Amino acid sequence: MPVQTVAVARRDEIPEGTVKVGEVNGVRIALCNYGGRIYAIDDVCTHDRGPLGQGELIGHEIECPRHGARFDVESGRATRLPAVRPVRTYPVHERDGAIEVEVQT
Amino acid sequence: MATQEKTLVDKEYKYGFRDENVTYTFKARKGIDHEIVEQISQMKNEPQWMRDFRHRSLDIFFAKPMPAWANLELLGQIDFNDIYYYMRASDVVGKTWDEVPEEIKRTYDRLGVPEAERKFLGGVTAQYDSEVVYHSIRTDLEAKGVLFSDMDTGLREHEDIVREYFATVIPPADNKFSALNSAVWSGGSFIWVPPGVRVDIPLQAYFRINAESMGQFERTLIIAEPGSFVHYIEGCTAPTYSSNSLHSAVVELIAKEGAHIRYTTIQNWYKNIYNLVTKRALAHKNAHVEWVDGNIGSRLTMKYPSVYMVGEGARGDVLSIAYASEGQHQDAGSKMVHAAPNTTSIITSKSVSKGGGRTSYRGLVKVYDGCEGVKSNVRCDALLMDPESRSDTYPTMEIDAKDVRIEHEATVSKVGEEQLFYVMSRGLSEVEATTMIVNGFFEPFVKELPMEYAVELNRLIALEMEGSVG
Amino acid sequence: MATNIEIGADVDRTAIEQLVKSEPDWLGDLRRAAFARYEQLPQPDASTPGWRRLSLEGIDLRAPRPAPTTFVTQASAADRERGLIVCSLADAVGSHEADVRRALSIEHQGKSVGRYAAIAEAAWQGGVFVYAPAHFVAQEPVRIELSAGTYPRVMVIAGERAELTVAETHREQDPVSAGVVDLLCGAGTVVRYLHVQDCARTAAAFSHQRALLERDARLITLNFGIGGRFARTDVEVELRGPGAESDMLGLVFAEDRQQFDYRTLQGHRSPNTRSDLLFKAALDDQSHASYTGVIVIDRGAQRSDAYQANRNLLLKEGARADTEPMLEIEADDVRCTHGATVGPVDEEQLFYARSRGLEADAAARLIVEGFFAEVFEKFGNPAVTDSLRSAVAPHLGRVGAA
Question: For chain C, what percent of residues have pLDDT higher than 70?
């Protein structure tokens, strides 16, 4: 599976405890800063397929604003109903203050 | 937590635990805002995390719109500012027996409801004095290690368990009314059953209820550890009067591996009440959850007991009846979410509408991809007693797995003339015949009830049929 | 990954005004009113209610500029001599003004008079008009074939007690097309209508079919879906007169990543009406079928019977089916049933076929053929449905046992 590392945002655009949505190859990705580390997940709630990016970061979980579903930003696992399926995660690299996400081409 | 410190935190709270000598002065007033929520939490002496949770939930309640698919004609009549969201027992007492509606008193007579119960159901006394019965059940439960108390006590005495599970099945953001309940909840039951323990006697909320938690914003949490069994019953068939017109309860059930929970509800709220309930269960591997749900009263009930099957072999059942007469709308249904293979769901819904009443069934059966071997069967039957009544059915199925068997069937009809004629030719009057037919229609539900409920329900149906024909 | 469908510029007011130039005022007014409705309805996307489960990536749903439709019609000369009219709707505006005007002016109360129906009503060109006079019994079916165009419009008017069959086949290659079909069935008529959707695999096709049945009219419709990449079809039957009967049949054979979205309405507005709906879908590969159907029985429509069944056969892992059968019943002296099922080829049936010596694949094909056969039979006109069996054959050939 060929992968591509794409710069998506700058670190200083994502303060700790916040979420920023970016786009890579037409796919929307939510970048979450938990404890100083950036995690990348699909910007799609597996419960209603709407965007996650507007949700709040509560510790290491992102909460979908529409029905309260939660996902662990590191593993992608659904940690609270009504979500039952995990959200996809992407490896993140940081280079010179730029946040890069690894996606399949 | 990412939430802000609330500015209304009372500085007395730093003492943490309830000080018996300090009585918090709570002023009961209408309307809902952060001050009321703060007062409720202070009154109960709750830990900070619950207080924060309430405040956050209130913000979510304000932000959420009414559900667009619901009966907005009725829902739109709720004036959120004209409601008391919390009242202590002492605020409630003072109502006299005279104020209880006549038709309710007549029904108590006909049903043979005992004196003390009548006063309690009519909202005249604050507490139902059945301490003796309750006490003996308590000893038995204690011996088994079962925790059974009201939710407030549960939070106080078993904070670690409550904190682990509270709002994990129904988050406040789930819908507008779960958000409201999350902000102002009071009362309800807390049950925790240890692994392998079977609680043979059905646990009933009835015994501990007091007017404060008169079903208005009850919050119930039941956790059944692996291999355990518990049957919980709430409500009663006798008509229950409450001057608080908005009831919004939240019930969360967690059935761990191999556990079995049966939750029976009979609701017969007086016709002034909007009864908007969110009930959901999480069923793990080989767990079994049954919702047995009877909706007889209220002006508008919106209730869709659900089971999320996340472990292989889990099973969810809903057996529900709804009865709507003039001015009533029973909007009920179920949601079955199959998120694991070889899970099963069975939904049986029976409804009767008469005199212009309206019953609706709203359901969802959802099967996620990769969940092979799922079986789901939904059967909805509606009986229309006259040309004024109405029945709607809105089931949805979203099936993403191939090796499954999903079936849904619904019928709507009236009491057959031939059927009526046949029964009457046996010497019964039209009222008796109609009663028999409707009882027969509801039979699959009634036979699942403990006997005293079944008897009372049959009597109630007879009364209702009398009203419809006479 | 999905290929993007490129289309030309959107339709706009000037395009409509161009059409109106050479037409009577009343028609221009109708087009403008329809265009106004179209402008008020937002373009659907994943957040639109009822569209959540569809995969819309790479599908451009903008309404295109009007392009003339290419119709080829076929009707027996003998029938024409006896009074059957089959001509372009544009011509009928002149030759049958009163009938066409009345028909085009009907305000539909269906549940989903959507954006695409509105733009089709505003921007149709050419079109087809079929008219069977009172008491006319057609000897041969009328066939209509569409191979190109964006807004096809078909109007069928059956006079009192007339009997005829109309078969309409869509093979447009255009990336987006939206068509409207009106079936006006007079008292005591017997009309059969077949709609075949066999558009290019890159196409998005919308079809809005509405039927009005007068007293004792009988309408049998069959929607056969096999083409297109995304097809959304609304079929609404209003049983306006007492004694009216409607049989609504649907058959879908989907493969690859095709998506079929059907919405139906069985509207009982008068007493003693009957409707019976049977929609079946066989889904192969990663295809998806969605069915939403409502039975409405008005308060005065006593002694009506309504049935609705949706059956989905999943042939491969990855195929998906959604079904939402609904009932809104306000009359009590009625009989009303609906049912829906989703599942794979039945194991017992498969076992039985294999025990008769058939290979697994052949057994599965046989079962799928049988699945369809019921629907073909119910249509009641083999001359028309036989050609459908051959249309399905190559697709059936790809059916595997698992």
Answer: 96
Q: Which chains border B (3 or more CB–CB pairs < 8 Å)? A: A, C
Task: Give residue C58's pLDDT.
Answer: 79
Which pLDDT value is given to residue C393?
Answer: 81
CATH class of the domain defined by A3-104: mainly beta
**Per-residue pLDDT averaged across C248-263, rounded?**
95
| Four-residue CA torsion sign, C130, C133, C134, C136 | negative
Q: B411–C337: do the CB atoms touch at under 8 Å?
A: yes
Is pLDDT at B211 greater than 70 in this prediction? no
Give domain limits for chain A: 3-104
Which residues in chain C touch residue A48, judged by CB atoms under 8 angstroms apart? 52
* pLDDT tens per residue across span C14-53: 888 888 888 999 999 999 999 998 988 888 887 787 788 8
- Nearest Cα neighbor of B300 from B37, B66, B77 is B77
CB within 8 Å: A69 and B310: no
Q: Which residues of C332-344 are buried (b: 16+ CB within 10 A; e: fewer)?
A: bbbebbbbbbbbb
Q: Rounded CA gap, C281 and B116, in Å? A: 61
Q: What is the pLDDT of residue B1?
A: 36
Cβ neighbours around A87 below 10 Å, total: 24
CB atoms within 10 A of CB C46: 15
pLDDT at position B25: 58
Please, what's the b/e burial string for B257-266 (b: 16 or more CB within 10 A of its CB; e: otherwise)?
A: bbbbbbbbbb
Rg (CA), chain C: 21
Give the per-residue pLDDT at B2.
34
DSSP secondary structure code for residue C178 in this structure: E
Which range among A55-64, B460-469, C48-57 has the greatest average pLDDT? A55-64
Q: What angle separates helix C347-355 from helix C360-379, to the nearest 10 degrees?
A: 110
What residues of chain C lie within 8 A of the CB of A50, using their CB? 46-47
Over residues A26-36, mean pLDDT:
92
What would the mean pLDDT of B418-427 be, rounded to a whole number? 84
The chain-wide mean pLDDT, for chain B, equals 84
Whole-angstrom distance, CA of residue C8 vs CA of residue C67 = 11
Name B98's Cβ contacts closer than 8 Å, sequence gap at least 6: none
The nearest alpha carbon in chain C to B362 belongs to C326
| CA-closest candidate to residue B336, choices B314, B300, B364 | B364
**Per-residue pLDDT, B158:** 96
Rounded to a whole number of angstroms, the distance from the CA of B407 to the nearest CA of chain C is 4
Cα C73 from Cα C80, distance rounded (Å): 12
Residue by residue, DSSP assigns C312-333 as EEE-SBTBEEEEEEEEEE--SS
Q: Rounded to a whole number, what is the distance in Å from the CA of B334 to chain C's nearest CA?
A: 14
Cβ atoms of B256 and B224 closer than 8 Å: yes
Q: What are B124-177's pLDDT values in tens digits? A: 655 554 455 566 677 888 899 999 988 988 999 999 999 999 999 999 999 999
- Chain B contact set for C340 (CB, 8 A): 395, 397, 406-408
Identify the band that residue B20 occupies on the pLDDT scale cut at 50, 70 and 90: very low
Number of H helices, E strands in chain A: 0, 11
Whole-number Å distance between alpha carbons of C269 and C246: 13
Give domain limits for chain B. 97-303, 417-470
Nearest CA in chain B to A81: B169
